[in-house]
């Protein structure tokens, strides 16, 4: 059946979707408001729990007790509640257990499925939701639609707005959101936290072919058994982060295939999912599901010792608390194996090998004789597992081995003994390649620069010629090292977006690392640079004048001075952990390494890799992939700067691990391509909006909307252009002068600031993604502005002071720092009423803090008077939120008088006093949150 859904109006799109769902067995139910929602929920709960209740239907009081028990929680709390039985005291004093959702294995189809549309919910404002899927009366899936031609990201922005305004009550139980414009469709998990578009996913088939048409998506993703299976089996309630996650399609298919392999065969298998695609979650979900099967006696999750860093431990413990054995003691592993309650054990390959070798542990290992044991091997391309595989296999004859890797071993990159990943793990059951991940927006592509640092007579694409001069003498030459350091210092700011991001610099040996470190230090640069490597008797080489441990000791001493720490080579593990955190938090600008941090290390704010060594095959892809984690649109790709590795090695590795002959699917296009795209975008913009003065188009929202879309594209291209060395902002080069661009930026920001998404009459621009973050100037923040004001106040000349303050006020208007935006009115007020007349010798900090305290008091006083709530109580609620992050809405409601509620009801035409009461409560709650941010 063909579909024209993408070409129809939003209403027709909605009607056709509902028709399709009803044909698939959903019951259509008319639900208009919260009262209808509760009434329907009551009917469905009774129906679903008929056997538990022996045909009894919940009375008014019993149902009220159930509502009280399950309401008033956030998304995380509601998700926990959804998956557990609810004990309710019945009118006769007995206790009954009510099931909200059947999540049992293969029983998820045994729920009650309904579909409704245009439910009206009232919170801060009134909103109507497009299509809602209800399971047992609870709204678990919310679908928001936009007509064809509208960017479906606007549906995402609408979801965010609804969450702020009215997605409350039983809608807190929404597990999955779906957004579509008919031709593009994505899904994502609900959250209490700020939601990010990068965590929205396309659904695919098993071969990673995207299913983005809404009609096809509904056929594949929304059948009753599948959507309930996704919610019950393929979502993760993360108790550490207090969040909800939904698995991506390739994760789903991998787990399904491996589960089938475990239950139907005794054969091994492996999954090839590219680095950065979330193998940890996939493998742990598999572990979790296998551990619930009675036929599986034990699940062992094996990692290499060098991968068991603080990040890995934290990641694994998120999904299964206290699973990770962080000790080096094999006795600890044996103790875990004796504990029958621990069906999942995460340990190192080395410790498992020791346990198998040592006869004193044989009695414990014998307990698994004849029983089915599953070994899940992380980073299974590593040669260590191949070496230890036979030994472990002898001790666990009925074991199955499931491997996960982002870079398998093939014939081209076989291990030292000549074996491939398939030789050990037999069958590849699912793959998700780097080209798939880039196309889906799950990882970034790479922008690779090749910098010649050796004789110009050598063909750097010719391996034989390079190898002929590939000697320590040439590569360690003082002048070469010095030239490269000069080059890095020249390009580092542009590569890292003015140090918003940071870099790893990997070199071929410890002596080279030491030489680079000393050369950087000579420059007295303000870059924060650290070095890390493992030392020992069998290291790659030593400097004649200094042992490498002594070299590392002085690097750590510099690090201690830089960050006020007290590490040494004796506390190397603690140093390693701290360096890891500093890189992730961008507190370090460049980290010098040999091999460390090039596999398994994830840092979203790391965007650049400098490479002075020869990389190929899996080592190259692993190292490059440290830079390509998704962060924001400010990070368009991972930057790679190669001083030895040549283009042929890069192309060969990319083709091998993408199963393609076209490396351009992974590698970004050259500067000239983006420059030409920018010039085309300039032409389109100027056709529609010839000058910045015309950007608002006389208040015509449709034309203003077109301007926003056209200029947004220009902004996105500018982010990419700025990372290239060739970038030069001139009219001849880009078709637009820097000044004209900045004038358009000012108008673009003004339109953004003028939108009032919280108003009841919504602008068509309210749900547009402005990507205003791309225009952010990190320098212009609250601290920076206050320093400027302080300096201006010290100016004795009133005329010069006023002129400077006027310039500062203009600067505030153009800034995009979130905290500054929130405080902009306050700072404007301070400038006009205090700073402009302040004595140059006055205590600036005292005057500013005094002004802020007065304004805070006035705002609290106004709200207290308006809603007739005692000021001390509002101050207490503010204090509770400041220190606990929670606002007790019931506490607010206790002080609301009938007169206040009546006035709110009349002013806003609310249909009931309850809605008016909720509106006031939400307004005061938001006021409390704003005060904490505004005056912190």
UniProtKB/TrEMBL annotation:
<dbReference type="GO" id="GO:0005524">
    <property type="term" value="F:ATP binding"/>
</dbReference>
<dbReference type="InterPro" id="IPR051268">
    <property type="entry name" value="Type-I_R_enzyme_R_subunit"/>
</dbReference>
<keyword id="KW-0255">Endonuclease</keyword>
<comment type="subunit">
    <text>The type I restriction/modification system is composed of three polypeptides R, M and S.</text>
</comment>
<dbReference type="InterPro" id="IPR014001">
    <property type="entry name" value="Helicase_ATP-bd"/>
</dbReference>
<keyword id="KW-0378">Hydrolase</keyword>
<keyword id="KW-0680">Restriction system</keyword>
<keyword id="KW-0067">ATP-binding</keyword>
<dbReference type="InterPro" id="IPR004473">
    <property type="entry name" value="Restrct_endonuc_typeI_HsdR"/>
</dbReference>
<dbReference type="GO" id="GO:0009035">
    <property type="term" value="F:type I site-specific deoxyribonuclease activity"/>
</dbReference>
<dbReference type="Pfam" id="PF22679">
    <property type="entry name" value="T1R_D3-like"/>
</dbReference>
<keyword id="KW-0238">DNA-binding</keyword>
<dbReference type="GO" id="GO:0003677">
    <property type="term" value="F:DNA binding"/>
</dbReference>
<comment type="similarity">
    <text>Belongs to the HsdR family.</text>
</comment>
<dbReference type="InterPro" id="IPR055180">
    <property type="entry name" value="HsdR_RecA-like_helicase_dom_2"/>
</dbReference>
<keyword id="KW-0547">Nucleotide-binding</keyword>
<dbReference type="Pfam" id="PF12008">
    <property type="entry name" value="EcoR124_C"/>
</dbReference>
<dbReference type="GO" id="GO:0009307">
    <property type="term" value="P:DNA restriction-modification system"/>
</dbReference>
<protein>
    <recommendedName>
        <fullName>Type I restriction enzyme endonuclease subunit</fullName>
        <ecNumber>3.1.21.3</ecNumber>
    </recommendedName>
</protein>
<comment type="function">
    <text>Subunit R is required for both nuclease and ATPase activities, but not for modification.</text>
</comment>
<dbReference type="InterPro" id="IPR007409">
    <property type="entry name" value="Restrct_endonuc_type1_HsdR_N"/>
</dbReference>
<keyword id="KW-0540">Nuclease</keyword>
<dbReference type="InterPro" id="IPR027417">
    <property type="entry name" value="P-loop_NTPase"/>
</dbReference>
<dbReference type="InterPro" id="IPR022625">
    <property type="entry name" value="TypeI_RM_Rsu_C"/>
</dbReference>
<dbReference type="Pfam" id="PF18766">
    <property type="entry name" value="SWI2_SNF2"/>
</dbReference>
<dbReference type="Pfam" id="PF04313">
    <property type="entry name" value="HSDR_N"/>
</dbReference>
<dbReference type="InterPro" id="IPR040980">
    <property type="entry name" value="SWI2_SNF2"/>
</dbReference>
<feature type="domain" description="Helicase ATP-binding">
    <location>
        <begin position="260"/>
        <end position="408"/>
    </location>
</feature>
């Amino acid at each position: 059946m063909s579909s024209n859904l993408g070409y129809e109006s939003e209403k027709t799109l909605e009607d056709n979707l509902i028709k399709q769902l009803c044909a698939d067995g959903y019951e259509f139910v008319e639900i208009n408001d919260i009262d209808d929602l509760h009434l329907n929920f009551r009917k469905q709960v009774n129906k679903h729990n008929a056997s538990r209740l022996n045909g009894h239907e919940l009375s008014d009081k019993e149902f009220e007790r159930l509502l009280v028990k399950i309401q008033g929680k956030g998304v995380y709390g509601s998700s926990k509640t959804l998956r557990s039985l609810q004990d309710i005291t019945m009118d006769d004093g007995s206790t009954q257990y009510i099931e909200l959702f059947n999540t049992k294995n293969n029983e998820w189809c045994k729920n009650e499925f309904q579909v409704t549309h245009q439910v009206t919910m009232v919170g801060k404002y009134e909103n109507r939701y497009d299509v809602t899927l209800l399971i047992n009366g609870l709204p678990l899936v919310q679908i928001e639609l936009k007509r064809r031609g509208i960017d479906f990201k606007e549906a995402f922005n609408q979801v965010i707005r609804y969450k702020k305004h009215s997605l409350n009550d039983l809608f807190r139980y929404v597990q999955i959101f779906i957004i579509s414009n008919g031709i593009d469709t994505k899904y994502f998990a609900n959250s209490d936290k700020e939601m990010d578009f990068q965590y929205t996913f396309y659904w695919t088939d098993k071969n990673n072919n995207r299913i983005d048409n809404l009609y096809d998506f509904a056929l594949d993703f929304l059948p009753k058994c599948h959507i309930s299976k996704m919610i019950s089996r393929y979502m993760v309630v993360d108790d550490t982060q207090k969040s909800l996650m939904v698995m991506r399609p390739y994760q789903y298919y991998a787990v399904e295939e491996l589960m089938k392999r475990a239950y139907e065969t005794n054969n091994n298998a492996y999954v090839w999912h590219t680095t950065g695609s979330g193998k940890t979650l996939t493998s742990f979900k598999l572990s979790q599901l296998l551990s619930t099967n009675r036929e599986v006696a034990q699940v062992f999750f094996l990692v290499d010792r060098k991968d068991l860093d603080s990040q890995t431990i934290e990641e694994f413990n998120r999904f299964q608390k206290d699973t990770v054995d962080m000790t080096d003691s094999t006795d600890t592993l044996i103790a875990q194996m004796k504990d029958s309650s621990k069906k999942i054990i995460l340990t190192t390959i080395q410790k498992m090998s020791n346990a198998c070798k040592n006869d004193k542990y044989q009695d414990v290992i014998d307990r698994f004789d004849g029983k089915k044991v599953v070994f899940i091997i992380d980073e299974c391309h590593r040669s260590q597992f191949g070496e230890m595989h036979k030994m472990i296999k002898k001790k666990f004859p009925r074991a199955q081995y499931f491997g996960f890797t982002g870079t398998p071993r093939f014939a081209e990159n076989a291990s030292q003994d000549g074996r491939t990943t398939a030789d050990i793990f037999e069958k590849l059951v699912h793959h998700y390649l780097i080209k798939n991940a880039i196309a889906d927006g799950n990882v970034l592509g790479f922008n690779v620069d090749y910098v010649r640092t050796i004789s110009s007579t050598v063909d750097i694409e010719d391996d034989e010629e390079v190898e002929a001069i590939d000697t320590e003498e040439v590569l360690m030459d003082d002048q070469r090292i010095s030239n490269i350091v000069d080059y890095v210092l020249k390009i580092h700011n542009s590569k890292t977006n003015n140090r918003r991001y940071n870099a790893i610099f990997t070199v071929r040996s410890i002596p080279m690392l030491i030489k680079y470190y000393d050369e950087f230090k000579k420059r007295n640069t303000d870059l924060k640079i650290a070095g890390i490597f493992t030392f020992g008797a069998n290291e790659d080489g030593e400097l004649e004048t200094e042992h490498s441990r002594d070299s590392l000791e002085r690097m750590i001493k510099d690090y201690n001075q830089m960050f006020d720490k007290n590490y040494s080579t004796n506390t190397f593990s603690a140093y390693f952990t701290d360096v890891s955190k500093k890189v992730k938090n961008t507190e370090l600008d460049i980290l010098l390494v040999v091999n460390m941090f090039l596999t398994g290390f994830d840092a979203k704010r790391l965007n650049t890799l400098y490479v002075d060594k020869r990389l190929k095959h899996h080592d190259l892809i692993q190292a490059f992939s440290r830079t390509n984690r998704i962060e924001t649109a400010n990070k368009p790709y991972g930057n790679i700067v190669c001083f030895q590795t040549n283009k042929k090695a890069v192309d060969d590795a990319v083709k091998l691990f993408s199963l393609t002959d076209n490396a351009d699917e992974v590698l970004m296009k050259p500067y000239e391509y983006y420059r030409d795209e920018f010039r085309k975008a300039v032409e389109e913009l100027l056709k529609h909006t010839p000058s910045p003065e015309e950007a608002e188009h006389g208040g015509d929202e449709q034309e203003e909307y077109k301007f926003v879309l056209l200029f947004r594209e220009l902004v996105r291209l500018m982010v990419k252009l700025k990372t290239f060395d060739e970038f030069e902002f001139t009219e001849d080069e880009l078709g637009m002068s820097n000044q004209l661009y900045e004038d358009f930026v000012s108008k673009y920001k003004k339109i953004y600031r003028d939108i009032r998404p919280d108003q009841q009459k919504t602008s068509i621009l309210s749900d547009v993604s402005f990507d205003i973050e791309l225009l952010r100037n990190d320098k212009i923040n609250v601290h920076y502005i206050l320093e400027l004001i302080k300096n201006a106040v010290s100016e004795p000349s009133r005329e010069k002071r006023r002129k400077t303050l006027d310039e500062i006020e203009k600067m505030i208007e153009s800034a995009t720092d979130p905290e500054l935006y929130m405080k902009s009115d306050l700072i404007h007020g301070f400038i006009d009423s205090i700073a402009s007349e302040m004595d140059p010798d006055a205590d600036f900090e005292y005057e500013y803090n005094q002004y802020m305290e007065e304004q805070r008091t006035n705002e609290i006083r106004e709200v207290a008077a308006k809603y007739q709530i005692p000021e001390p109580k509002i101050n207490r609620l503010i204090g509770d939120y400041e220190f606990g992050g929670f606002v007790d809405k019931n506490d607010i409601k206790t002080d609301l008088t009938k007169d206040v509620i009546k006035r709110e009801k009349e002013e806003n035409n609310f249909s009931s006093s309850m809605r008016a009461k909720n509106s006031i409560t939400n307004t005061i709650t938001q006021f409390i949150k704003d005060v904490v941010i505004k005056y912190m």
